[in-house]
Design a protein that fits this description.
Strand order of the largest sheet: 4-3-5-6-7
Radius of gyration: 16 Å
Order of helices and strands: HEEHEHEEHEEH
CATH architecture: 3-Layer(aba) Sandwich
Strand content: 15-25%
CATH class: Alpha Beta
Number of helices: 5
CATH superfamily: Glucose-6-phosphate isomerase like protein, domain 1
Structural class: alpha/beta
Shape: globular
Number of strands: 7
CATH topology: Rossmann fold
Helix content: 25-40%
Length: about 190
């Protein structure tokens, strides 16, 4: 029997996690299940769940203080802040200050071992900095994202508040579970209606 999904299938579907854009890049085509009559691409739920598990397993190799989560896209701010609060991971919700990973003279200079971004385009400065110093990048990618500078792609609707809320809720839950710190998390803290 196939492995059980991290969330119930209908919970995934209600969040819109599988709804992509009308534009699709060549790299993301392997994660697309079909294209709807209205032109929107639909991502494969099994692939989303599989890649989400890979991202969680990758995160599990690092302490919270070694991970940086970046989200320039405002729709992700509530969910990434909730993720940071629950896990202790450092979060930048808003404009990422370029150079904080590469310039020791920067006022906010920090050393991290893993970067996670909610969208490769608006978060490209964080991806560029991570590439420059050679640390892995996990990126949430919609059907229109370029992902050639990313180590691990999690295909998903990275623009929807409900989709991002569910993703970061699941990631926080599983990361804490792995660390033996199971907390009672409320999905409403990660998502907006």
């Amino acid at each position: 029997m196939a492995e059980e999904l991290l969330a119930a299938q209908d919970q995934y579907l209600k969040s819109g996690i599988h709804i992509g854009t009308k534009f699709k890049t060549a790299y993301m085509s392997r994660f697309i299940y079909k294209t709807r009559p209205d032109g929107l691409s639909v991502l494969n739920l099994a692939k989303i769940d599989e890649r989400l598990r890979l991202a969680i397993n990758m995160m599990n190799q690092y302490e919270p203080q070694d991970i940086l989560l970046v989200s320039r896209r405002e729709n992700g701010w509530k969910s990434v802040k909730a993720f940071g609060k629950a896990t202790g991971v450092k979060v930048f919700a808003g404009r990422y200050p370029p150079g904080i990973l590469t310039n020791p003279n920067h006022s906010e200079y920090s050393e991290f071992k893993l970067i996670m971004v909610t969208d490769t385009w608006p978060d490209r400065n964080a991806v560029k900095d991570a590439m420059q110093i050679g640390i892995p990048v996990i990126a949430l990618c919609d059907t229109n994202n370029q992902s050639n500078e990313v180590d691990l792609v999690v295909p998903c609707n990275n623009k929807g508040k409900k989709s991002l809320g569910l993703l970061f809720f699941l990631m926080a839950r599983e990361y804490l579970k792995h660390r033996g710190q199971e907390k009672e998390l409320n999905i409403d803290d990660f998502s907006e209606d």
